[in-house]
Amino acid sequence: MACVKAVNYTIVLNGESLEPFNAAKGLRQEDPISPFLFAIAMEYLSRLLNELHHYKRFKYHPRCSKLHITYLSYVDDLLLFARGDTSSTQRLQECFTIFSRASGLQANLNKSAIYYGVKVIKLIEAYCRSYMWSGGNEITKRTLIAWDKVCLPKTVGGLNLSNLHIWNIAAIAKTFWDLSHKKDKLWIKWIHTVYIKEQCINSMSIPMNASWMVRKILEAREIINQLHRPLKDKKSIIKQIYLQLTPMLPKTTWRSLMCSNATRPKAIITMWLQCQGRLLTVDRLKKWGLSVNGSCVLCHTNLETRNHLFAECDYAKRLWGRLSQWAKVQNISSSTWEQQL
Ligand SMILES: [Zn+2]
């Protein structure tokens, strides 16, 4: 693109045109040479991707290996394919980064999506879960709260992380919604012409000769039919479905402590564990069979339990009293943790 320097602009100010200035890079919109330059740039990417088969650790997408397909591009849309393992996706990413640096073209992340199979989703979730509880990148099963619960909204006791399993179901259901609402796209026209053929999409039998993917999309009508609120076209359809598929649980009494709390993230997590009754107090450690000193570290007399540490302990009561005084609020100290909450 450095060779293209012919474009210049002039600004008309108060009816007078000012000195022309050159554009830093690029062409005018709709310039007839643009498609050719674009084709040259994409040819470079194509050659980079065609080299991938030299790398032993790069594996093709299972459905693309026979034809050695790694990408499809249409106008400015680009589809990249690989097996969903770390080394293959890294290789693909590296190729795209080299192409980006050379051409100046970058992916719009807001319009990009990655599709994984269920196995990979489970693996990603296991990494997220392990990272949350151990801070490392090794998969561990040691967790204090079940992942399904962690993924709930904050108002019902979760941390509002995305539940990839439900998100995946919502994404498939959204595709069915597209199929029944947007008839102007080519792939939708194709499915309508080949499989649906003027039948009612909600009651027709699933065509057994259709591909696995088409059948899965049509089966997702069950999900759409069980939603209790109509979907609004202007908002994200996947998000609306996702929220409706998230279990409706009673709101916690301590939800105001979790939402819009400006304290440190670590303190929020500690408080969250405390509210869930999962803080590693001595009584819980003893139940697990660990030999630890059982007495409270503050008063050295009673057993350290959640209730004792935060409500019953004399030291804790004095602390709550002083804190309330300092914050000029009514003394919030009470005899049990539940009451305090
Ligand atoms: Zn104590």
Describe the fold and architecture.
There is one protein chain. The protein is mainly α and 341 residues long. It has helices spanning 34-50, 86-103, 118-134, 147-150, 164-181, 186-196, 212-219, 221-225, 237-245, 255-258, 265-276, 282-287, 306-312, 314-326, 337-340, and strands spanning 8-9, 12-13, 16-17, 21-22, 71-74, 77-80. The strands form three sheets. It has a two-stranded antiparallel ribbon with strand order 1-4. β5 and β6 (77-80) form a beta hairpin. α1 packs antiparallel against α2 (86-103), α5 (164-181) packs across α7 and α5 (164-181) crosses α9. The longest helix is centred in the first third of the chain and has 18 residues, at 86-103. It is extended, with a radius of gyration of 29 Å. Bound molecules: zinc ion. Zinc ion (ZN) binds next to loops.
Our count of helices gives 15
Mean pLDDT over all positions: 86
Distance between the termini: 63 Å
Question: What is the molecular shape?
Answer: extended
Topology as H/E string?
Answer: EEEEHEEHHHHHHHHHHHHHH
Into which percentage range does the β-strand content fall? under 5%
Number of strands: 6
Largest sheet, strands/sense/barrel: 2 strands, antiparallel
Unreliable stretches (pLDDT < 50, length at least 5) are: none
Q: How big is the Rg?
A: 29 Å
